[in-house]
Amino acid sequence: MTAKRSGKGPAAPLHRLARRAVVAAACLFLLVTPLAGCTASQQGNAGSTAPADASLPIEESTAPGTTTSASATAAPGTDTSASASQSPAAGLFPVDATRTATGPKQGTYYEVFVRAFADGDGDGIGDLRGLTAKLDYLNDGKDTTTDDLGVTGLWLMPINPSPSYHGYDVANYRDIEPDYGTMADFDAFLAAAHQRGISVIIDLVLNHTSTENPWFVQSAAKNPEYRSWYHWADSGTDDYNLDASVWGHKVWNKRGTALYYAIFWDGMPDLNYDEPAVRQEMKDVAKFWLDKGVDGFRLDAVPHIYGTGELPDNAPGLEPTLAWWKEFQTYCESVEPDVMIVGEVLDRMGTRLPFVSSLDSVFHVDLGEAIAAAVKAGSSKNDYLAGMLERELGQYREKNPDFIDCPFLSNHDQNRIYGLLAGKPENMKLAASLYLTAEGVPFVYYGEELGMFGSKPDEDIRLPFVWGDDAAQTDWRTSRYENVVPQTQQVAQAASIQTHYRRLIQLRAVLPALNRGRLAAVKSGNPGLVAWMMTAPEQQALVLHNLSREAVVIDPDMLAASVKNADAPSSAASDISEAWRLAFEQAVGTTGWTTGTSDAHPKQITLAPQSSVVLARATGGNP
Questions:
Q1: What is the reported pLDDT for 109?
Q2: Once rounded to an integer, what is the mean pLDDT over residues 589-602?
Q3: How do beta strands 529-536 and 518-521 pair?
Q4: How many Cβ atoms from other residues are within 10 Å of residue 600's Cβ?
Q5: How far apart are CA 330 and CA 169, in angstroms?
Q6: What does the DSSP 8-state code read for residue 464?
Q7: Which pLDDT score is estimated for 84?
Q8: How does the average pLDDT of the chain come out, rounded?
């Protein structure tokens, strides 16, 4: 199928897990001491051989032989280290794999462009039958298996009929895009996903429709029932600036003797939310899908419901926009109390923050850039990354105590993160560790776990998922990137990017501290070390990321006692009911600790270069 439009038309823009954290506060100091001659195999004993000074809990080493860098020419998804041939199940996955993430507001979501994901009828276009057939790759519903990705939720990009390949100009809100199948296919998919414990949210485009939508057709024909559903102006009016442009194109478009408002492009006319019938119709659309069993919605173009250019006399549109989304969120909760709604506000914190008072979730759209910068630099000076996360999460909670952050590295409107990370597997793994161990409900963009490349135009960041030699492989668009290791190969490689994603996503589903905890930044004093505490009522997790290209030795008890500021969520030390246990080590066997036990551990642990470690302990609280 030939793409009719890119993104949302020409020059398209980038477009409640609330639990109290428990953290102790104290001071932390830093000592830099070389561990000369320490090899990768010896790092596991570094904690016992390094100087043991309780007041100096961190040691950074230059350790020859410990580098995890892959060859610059290695194909995405591969790892040239010695561990690459290790069995992918040996010591990699949680000892206790019982999933604790439940419902649509915990765990990890996976964003799917159905057209690009899996072909179920042999026409080369991804469809719902193909997606259903591949659900076991995403989550097979069994806690004891490890070859599935383990995601607990899916976000489907638009699945409604549309004249465009991407579907963001909707022609019928109550039907399925014919390329993707039928409503019966969707019902079968939804039932199969729920059977596996996978929640499903769908893209809901409420700001605008297609010009082929019957509503607009009737409105353009001056049918009095629909004329006011869109914004119309007569030529020469002084009420609007009819010459206004956004992103390089005019927003008022001629149709007959009048003009209509369309902020994205002329094929996407904006709906008029001052018309009560429009507000009610969109609530009815939401109820239609919630009654079908979907678990929620990803809301497109959230800030644009009342754009300044569509209001008479350029009146500001923020307050009426916020009022609509609050009305919509409240209505959806009246239909399904546990509905998951996440809004797209593709802008910086200052623009996102007001919407937190109306919606329970928005995407943390600029986090990926901050993570990529820290990973490539090998440092985060003055604990910037952890501090930024804690500060922004705190601002969200001030606006809405039930807010759920939704971090991602990149999505369908942005160049894929792997290119921003210089196409290096070790960079990709570290970036994944950073956002998949943070607070909230993270969203993985399909193919990210393979190291798929993609840069503008939009069609090239929505390329076919790389299955390999598989009948499900789509070919809706030819990729210009040929060096991605297919899923069928990566799943069998212990050191692949895909295996790393499986480990992290399954860990997140298992540990309450990760899937419903609150984040408090830890002040490490080491620019190469990013650390935070994740706390749920029943469990704490100390999350450690070594950004540097050198090994770091840490005293976890001392580190856990240092939070970045006194306002972070905290609890008395008497709440702690057990010692730290090793829950995750990226470089298996290098920490000097044994996974799943707190017995006979040395005082210190070692973080290999560019690797992450998660320690967990019970706190004695009730889930």
A1: 98
A2: 75
A3: antiparallel
A4: 7
A5: 25
A6: P
A7: 38
A8: 84
- Distance in angstroms (rounded) separating the CA atoms of residues 378 and 393: 24
Q: How far is CA 96 from the centre of its chain?
A: 25
Selecting among 79, 169, 179, 300, the annotated active-site residue is 300
Catalytic: which of 344, 413, 448, 460? 344
Q: According to the model, what pLDDT value does residue 89 have?
A: 52
HEC assignment per residue over 217-240:
HHHHCCCCCCHHHECEEECCCCCC
Place of tokens 């462009």: 113
DSSP code of 354?
G
Active site residue 475: no
Closest CA to 482 of 462, 500, 468, 497: 468
| DSSP, res 522 | B
Q: pLDDT tens for residues 158-204?
A: 999 999 999 999 999 999 999 999 999 999 999 999 999 999 999 99
What residues are paired with 30 via a beta bridge?
Answer: 58
Q: What type of residue is 57?
A: P
Is-contact 53 602, C-beta < 8 A? no
- Residue with the bigger pLDDT between 574 and 286: it is 286
Q: Which amino acid is at 324?
A: W
Contact assessment for residue 388 and residue 364, using Cβ atoms and an 8 Å cutoff: no
Residue 78 has pLDDT above 70, yes or no: no
Rounded Cα distance, 404 and 339, in Å? 12
DSSP H or E segment with residue 136: helix 135-138
CA distance 152 to 340: 13
Can you read off the two tokens belonging to residue 171? Answer: 């022609």
Structure tokens at 227: 């004329």
Contact 481, 452 (CB under 8 A): yes
Instruction: Map tokens 């492989």 to a residue.
Output: 473
96 has catalytic annotation: no
Sheet holding 30-32, edge to edge: 30-32, 58-61, 551-554, 605-607
Dig out the tokens for 313 from the structure.
């006399």
Confirm if 276 and 324 have CB atoms less than 8 A apart. Answer: no
| Maximum CA extent, the chain | 83
Residue 412, token pair as written in the block: 């369908």
**DSSP code per residue over 416-452:** -HHHHTTT-HHHHHHHHHHHHTSSS--EEETTGGGT-
Measured CA to CA, the distance from residue 111 to residue 549 in angstroms comes to 32
Find out whether 232 and 240 touch, Cβ atoms under 8 Å. Answer: no
Signed CA dihedral, 388, 392, 393, 398: sign only = positive
- From CA 223, how far away is CA 480, in angstroms rounded? 47
Phi, psi of 357 (to 5 degrees): -75, -15
Question: What's the average model confidence in pLDDT over 415-441?
Answer: 97
Q: State the sign of the Cα–Cα–Cα–Cα dihedral 398, 400, 403, 408.
A: negative
CA pseudo-torsion sign 106, 286, 231, 457: positive
Q: How many CB atoms lie within 10 A of CB 326?
A: 14
344 CB-side CA count, 13 A: 24
Q: What is the pLDDT of residue 573?
A: 36
